[in-house]
Amino acid sequence: MLVTISRTRLLCFAESLHLRCTPSLHSSRGYSKKGQDSNEINNEGSEKKRKDLLLSLPKTKLTLTLRDGAAAKREKVIQEKTGFSKLYEWQRNQKQRPEFVLHDGPPYANGLLHVGHAVNKILKDIVNRHKLLEGYRIGYCPGWDCHGLPIELKAIKQKDNAVNDLCPLTIRNRARNFAKGAIKQQKATFKRWGILGDWNTPYLTMDPKYSSCQLNVFYSLYKKGLIYQDFMPVYWSPSSRTALAESELIYNAKHVSQSLWLTFDARTIPESLVQLSEGKILKKPVKLLVWTTTPWTIPANQAICFGADIKYCCVETADTMYVCCEEFVPTLKDILASPAEVTLTFEGSELLSMTYCHPLNNEELPVYSASHVTSTKGTGLVHTAPAHGHDDFHIAIDHGLSVKSLIREDGSYSPEAGPQLANKVVGKDANETVLELLGDHVIKVEDFVHSYPYDWRTNQPVIIRASLQWFMDTSSVKETAIKCLDSVNIYPKSSQNSMLSQLESRTYWCISRQRSWGLPIPVFYCRSTGKPFITVDSVNHISKLFLEHGTDVWWKMSTEELLPESVLQKSGIKNSSGFVKGEDILDIWFDSGVSWACILQDSNEEADVYLEGLDQFGGWFLSSLLTSVALNEKPPFKSLVVHGFTVDADGKKMSKSVGNVIDPMDVVDGSKASGIPSYGADVLRWWVATSGLQSNIPIGSSILTRCNEEVFRLRKTCRFLLGNLWDFTPDKDSVSYNQLLAQDSYMLHLLHDFALKAIQLYADHRYNKVTSIVDRFISADVSSFYSSIIKDRCYCDSRDSLARRSCQTVQYNILDVLIRLLAPILPHFAEEVFQYLPKLQHQQDCNSLFKTTGHNINPEWEDLAGYHRFQPSLQIKARFNEMIGPETPSSFDVVIWASGDLYDNLKVLQPTYVSTNSALVEILQASQVSLSNQRLDSAMDDVELVTASCSLYKPDSDATEKHDYVMGVLPCQLYMCTRCRRSVAKSSALRFCSRCADVIAEDYQ
């Protein structure tokens, strides 16, 4: 009776309000049609509806606005409010936590950052923030590679002085200041991207303390015999005037060399060939035919090599007998364009005692067998210049040949090459001069397009040139290093072979450079013998000077000061007048490659993760591994994570000249010049994560637009969920798992399943998969499924009802888990949501999500039985949607007949025969559902009946069984409720359904 009276009074009350129809609860209530321009959910219109109809409409201060760089502005506020700059220090003070160390491969301090830097640093930050949320204490000291030619060249270009006019100290001072400026600029950008790290005390390879440590590593390797000095061919850059390591080379696939076919006159013919040819070979001049792509090396020729197992021919013309491999004969005939006949075929071993005359100086030279000679390219006879080829050099060592280096540091011939060649420059006029001097020895010249090494800094061709250099003997540690890799996890696994191939191909490492800006090699040379002098005492003394005065003392102080008598006397030497200090500096890969020894002392000189680009297999990964294995017999890393290179949207390499370069800060702050709107740092980070570790990482306007839409979709969904928690206090209002509605517990199962997958993907560094399943979870599970079915009870049920608090509990947990999984990728957004998320009592004073730990996943949520129990209703929902097509589900009533186990299963979701508010009704989104185990009358008027089947899980057999059911769909028989907009009112005379009448009556009372 009380309810009836209340409803009567309610109807009178409702009439007096002159209520207007409210929007359908199946739309995004309270959202602007221009979603991205709307602000708070509780706008004026929805607030009036809230008051008039007592609707619990969404209400939150989390905005959607993206105009005028709103995202970027919000991020700056979030960084300040949540203490981004103080987080690293805070977490370092959490001494009880286990340690996780990601060691930073230092970027060059040589200018503005590009998108490649963004990929690298953001991926590192994703790793660190994920580990931080898992309860680790992060060790991440950012570093900068401060030495090297790129910085030196930029420092030199700051003034008009020619390079030769600048003394080393001037160059070093400018380079140091340039590096400091670049570091300051880059550091600010990294912090703007939200990178967590020890920004107050980063490591710099130019710091005296770092340099001192590096000297000690150098001497330790020297003492073990792994560092030595030798005269041998190395890659040499005339444009940089220094030796280069293989890791400092890039290859130009379209390089054009001047290739040359030339002859060398045979002087001594082996007796075996005379006999094989029955003396014919002596009747005409015999010429050895050679092909080369480096004519400028002919003056340094010391031998010709052949393959002992290759078949060679004597090709006779009217006046000459040519010797070449059998495969080259057809090409030779084409080149000669005159009658030519093969008169003799023989094994290469028959050439063993032959000699020939050098075409420029008539010197008699030998012919040798060599394993590197093939018949697949060229003539099968290889011109050998020991000063300009690695294979050539080994031939010289094996046979005691002299190694003549006729090329100076700038790529020009020295006077020793003769007056006609002196000062001619390789790559300019050297080849032409050599061709002129060769005269009739040349039979053909043509351009040859091939892949050729270039200096990666100057983008100019390099040469191979013998010089006195310092080397690390990598061949001695190679096998141990390969074995050590067995204990290293490499992500992705497909990259492992790249590391192995780099190791297997590296026999030595040239670690000396002939420049000014770098760490000096701490060696002195005897004036009379040229022998190097280095002892533990001399290194300790220099190390102490570096710590006290900086590394410039090597150039500022005299040899007597750097190598005082007190040091020499320990080696039995009286004074330093007989010594001169060295002028070489260390390779920058040695600088950064020993960072494990200089930075990781507190973690046993071992990091959990090294994370860099693919190119570092031949760079920092390799130099770090080799030096660590050499001294510690273990790798300096437990895991290697390897990412690819950025390209434009079409997969092309980005180039300023092409105009396809995207500045990462344009993505963050926007740029009118490039036409890129301000997306904020989180969209940049999302793009990095979506790219993952793939070898090519495309970026372009369409890709950024897609990333922005995905992040906006996340924001929109989280805003909806937050809006529904405006009156929810977790400690007080949460519903225990066993009291949740079935559809709510099912949603938690989906959340549980999604979260565990995401956590595993984080562990496997598959960040592109993380973003993929996040987007799917948000779109399919949260937005399309769950949010759509709970709006009615969330907005219209009594605020403290179990049904409403049940779905609020789930929405709270979705947000709580989701932002923890998003936080490593989208830290600004996650922190922003965390500020608005209702807090547990113990979190009230916590201003940062990253000061909490754990993913907050309840094991109860797995509930596989509940998951399987829910599947038939979802299959029925899919069949129902097929039947009604584009029509709105709430416009229909549904009648379902089922029997046996299927009926029992559905009855859990709808205990009564007919219902307008059961779990089954909510799942189907119908007006009302009738559920029966009595067979339906197939002749029912206006009802479309279909027979279908669904799968029902049987736990006893761990299998599914097919169960048939009959479903009928008919236009809804009830009337529209003015408040909830559902067709569930029992009479057209009533403005409200019974549920809404009760809610308003309850409040009215």
Automatic annotation (TrEMBL):
This is isoleucine--tRNA ligase. One of its GO terms (biological process) is mitochondrial translation. Belongs to the class-I aminoacyl-tRNA synthetase family. PROSITE patterns: AA_TRNA_LIGASE_I. Residues 87-696 form the Aminoacyl-tRNA synthetase class Ia domain. Its EC number is 6.1.1.5. The keyword Kinase does not apply. Keywords: Aminoacyl-tRNA synthetase, ATP-binding, Cytoplasm, Ligase, Metal-binding, Nucleotide-binding, Protein biosynthesis. InterPro entries: aa-tRNA-synth_I_CS, aa-tRNA-synth_Ia, Anticodon_Ile_BEm, Ile-tRNA-ligase, Ile-tRNA_ligase, M/V/L/I-tRNA-synth_anticd-bd, Rossmann-like_a/b/a_fold, tRNAsynth_Ia_anticodon-bd. SUPFAM superfamilies: Anticodon-binding domain of a subclass of class I aminoacyl-tRNA synthetases, Nucleotidylyl transferase, ValRS/IleRS/LeuRS editing domain. It comes from Octopus vulgaris (Common octopus).
